[in-house]
Fold:
Amino acid sequence: MGQITKTIRITGSSPDSFEDAVTTVLARTAETVSGIEGFEVVRQAGSVDEAGVVTRFEVTVDITFGVRESVHG
Structure:
């Protein structure tokens, strides 16, 4: 039988960078989801203050992981 995967969409942010936002999303997701196989950044956004300084980097990430096969006995 072929492999089955599931994809979930998660959004997270960082005050430091887009890369840090992605790393944070993946680390937090890995706390509750096992078998993460890959990811795709589907959106990047941010916030700026009144002086035009970036204050927050936000990413939306599709995370794919394998679906475990059930064991029937």
